[in-house]
Amino acid sequence: MYSSNSSQEPPNNGTPGPFDGPQWPHQAPRGMYLSVAVLMGIVVVSASVVNGLVIMVSIRYKKLQSPLNYILVNLAVADLLVTLCGSSVSFSNNINGFFVFGKQMCELEGFMVSLTGIVGLWSLAILAFERYVVVCRPLGDFRFQHRHAVSGCAFTWSWSLLWTTPPLMGWNSYVPEGLRTSCGPNWYTGGSSNNSYILALFVTCFVMPLSLILFSYTNLLMTLRAAAAQQQESDTTQQAEREVTRMVIAMVMAFLICWLPYTTFALVVATNKDIAIQPALASLPSYFAKTATVYNPIIYVFMNKQVREKAIS
């Protein structure tokens, strides 16, 4: 079984340390590591293609370089960096069965994946808020311009840096997790310092962006439904309202499916330090979150008619 501090200190049963050698069969069967390697390989290829395509198309076509599309490119860049810094490293590690790149690389991977993952997560929230501002017009005749878009993108990076740098400075730390083939914040060893960081991260990088997403899309749907009710004879308005409703449901569900298991697992382990969890089960939320780099661009970008037409052409 997997205990709260097993990802950091070698147990006394002869299992190599996370940087010393293959963890099978002590943590999980070799087939489990190879299965995760296959999953990460698929994610690396798919995410690199779709996010690279989004970036390339956005650079190539000036019509797509509108302020409202900046945050989509920011999301694609973040997802691509998660793929390069996290999924590709996990792919190599799972083939070998342990973290082959050493402790310093573990800390760097944990930091980069957390940094770019939170940038992507907050990009989704900023995207929702921008749509709310443009469609619902809470600021009256406010016009969304270049500087506003740049400010939104800059916020995602600065806010993420604010909350992912502390583990490098001693408030929490980045350690091998689950199968010991990827690294992330230390949810495992407990203590007031680690638990306070995890709680702060949960509030600032999950509750806050989720609340902003729900607020923005709820108001957006209410505005569109009010417009559709006033134009009941207009098939175009009714169809637009239905399409937006489906898209919003897909966006919110994707967000929850990706991040809710990871944050729930972190809170459960952090508040119950003696809990025993199988390594494979402990790894699932982290690897599952990495798959967001594939479906994020599909939901948020390729459902954008302009981008889809340029990408196909």
TrEMBL record:
Record has Nucleus as a keyword: no
A GO molecular-function descriptor: photoreceptor activity
Keyword Disulfide bond: yes
Transmembrane segments: 32-59, 71-91, 111-129, 149-169, 197-217, 248-270, 282-303
A biological process from GO: phototransduction
UniProt entry keywords in alphabetical sequence: Chromophore, Disulfide bond, G-protein coupled receptor, Membrane, Photoreceptor protein, Receptor, Retinal protein, Sensory transduction, Transducer, Transmembrane, Transmembrane helix
Disordered as annotated region, ranges: 1-22
Ranges where the G-protein coupled receptors family 1 profile domain occurs: 50-300
Biased segments, Polar residues type: 1-15
Membrane topology: Multi-pass membrane protein
Record-stated family: Belongs to the G-protein coupled receptor 1 family. Opsin subfamily.
Record-given protein name: Pinopsin
Lineage of the organism: Eukaryota, Metazoa, Chordata, Craniata, Vertebrata
